[in-house]
Each structure stands twice: as C-alpha cells, then as structure tokens.
Specification:
Elements: E1 4-11, E2 16-23, E3 31-33, E4 40-45, H1 56-67, E5 76-77, E6 83-84, H2 91-100
The structure holds zinc ion (ZN).
Length: 112
C-alpha cells in the first residue's frame, strides 16, 4: 500500500487552512475548493504552518509570500543544496526574503 501524505491547503480569503491526504503515487492538485467560502484554497505543501485565523499580520505575510511565488516550498542553498532557508517570521522580513530569493519563486500565473 502506498504511504499517504498530508498536504496543507489554505484559503487566503477566509484565513483558514485544512489538510488533505494523498497517496505518494498521486500528484496533489494546486488548488481545491475552499469548504468555507467556495473560493480557491491553494496548495501550500507539506511544510505549511497555519497561523491563527485572528493573526491578520501573519496571514498578510502569507498572502505577500504567495503572491510572489513562495508557497512554503523548501529553498535549498549552499554547497550540495544542504542548507534550507527558513521562512520569514514577519511581513517586514518577508519583503527582504522575497527580494533575496526571487530566483526560487514559483512562476505562477493566476487564473483569469
Ligand atoms: Zn475560503
């Protein structure tokens, strides 16, 4: 039997995240329908830690990172790509982060 794994999805309108289980043989979708608002819940991968719904600053930061192509994918730098860059804690730090690691951003064209 294939090992299941969890992917985190988050709706940036509701400030809510939820997990879905997939088999390793399956590719997880980039988007799901948000169970709260019926809008788009984006795939934030396996490393996403959801802030509290009320923590608007943290959600602002996530929106900012997301819109610049950072979906909590691991960013590996250094010799042999051994070093994983930690994600920023604040919106201010996120601005520097986005600038510094823009080459690692996921190229993403939103649906029209
Ligand atoms: Zn929603």
């Amino acid at each position: 039997m294939a090992t299941p794994y969890n992917m985190a999805f988050a709706c940036l309108s509701c400030c809510k995240s939820f997990k879905r289980e997939f088999d390793l043989s399956q590719e997880s979708p980039k988007e799901l329908v948000c169970p709260e608002c019926g809008g788009v819940a984006h795939n934030f991968g396996r490393h996403f830690k959801s802030p509290k719904k009320t923590d608007t600053k943290q959600w602002q930061k996530i929106r900012y990172l997301f819109s610049h192509g950072f979906r909590f994918q691991k960013i590996r730098i250094g010799p042999g790509h051994h070093d994983v860059v930690p994600y920023p804690d604040t919106l201010e730090a996120a601005r520097e982060f986005v600038e510094k690691y823009k080459d690692y951003a996921i190229k993403y064209s939103p649906r029209t």
